[in-house]
Amino acid sequence: MAEFGEEDLSGSTFDWTDLSGSTFRAASLSNVTIRGTDLHHVRMTGVELWDVDISGEIKDLRINGVDVTAYVEAEVARREPDLAKMRPEDPAGFQEAWALLEQRWDSTVGRARRLDPQQLHEQVDGEWSFIETLRHLSFATASWVHRAIIGESAPWHPLDLPWDEAPEGSFPRDRAARPSLDEVLEVRRARQADVRRVVEGLTEESLAAETTPPDDGGWPPPRPFTVKECLSIVLNEEWWHRTYAERDLAVLETRAQ
């Protein structure tokens, strides 16, 4: 346990650092970037919170005593009515959701093709490039469909890309690779077809069935998951990463003008 008083720690980087239970008093957290970080049970009082952009899984968020969670969810749903389809409860719902995602991703890829190929490796505000996004979705499919549902021990492709804060494991994480869009799409489309086959073959019984990934240091960890839980994670990944990709493509398009 350390104490910092009247210290200048500006510009510091904290990777895999446990700050739980810490107290920040009269501290400056201006221009801070927080990624892949747990912020459970955080209490902020007497703060000045200006020009803040938050994206992620948000529950029980109270601002000046008002729980704004329901408002945020309702506004997101108003802007994206199809988001509700990403929380299906039966096989038909999963089939509809996956067909919608494939259709939307086809449009997004078409939009990306109109840019200079080198722009697809550009990051916007430190977020993943378009190519890195597709590589990550390939990793997600390998993890939650090929390993967790199908039971393959090592389904990884060398281009698969885990999230930056992923624990060490028996999977690739080559951030330096710069494959072309077509190279990434070759892997991506094969994985999409595999998900489609799983989804089209769903029954009520298979959707509710439990599955446990191999215990070999891969991802996800070897604990029981329902097939529904695994596929729901894939839908969530696909929806939100496409949302972020569309946002960043709009920025890249202005750069190309």
From TrEMBL:
Boundaries of every DinB-like domain copy: 101-244
Classification via Pfam families: DinB_2, Pentapeptide
Region (Disordered): 204-223
Classification via InterPro entries: 5peptide_repeat, DinB-like, DinB/YfiT-like
Protein name per its UniProtKB record: DinB family protein
Species the sequence originates in: Nocardioides renjunii
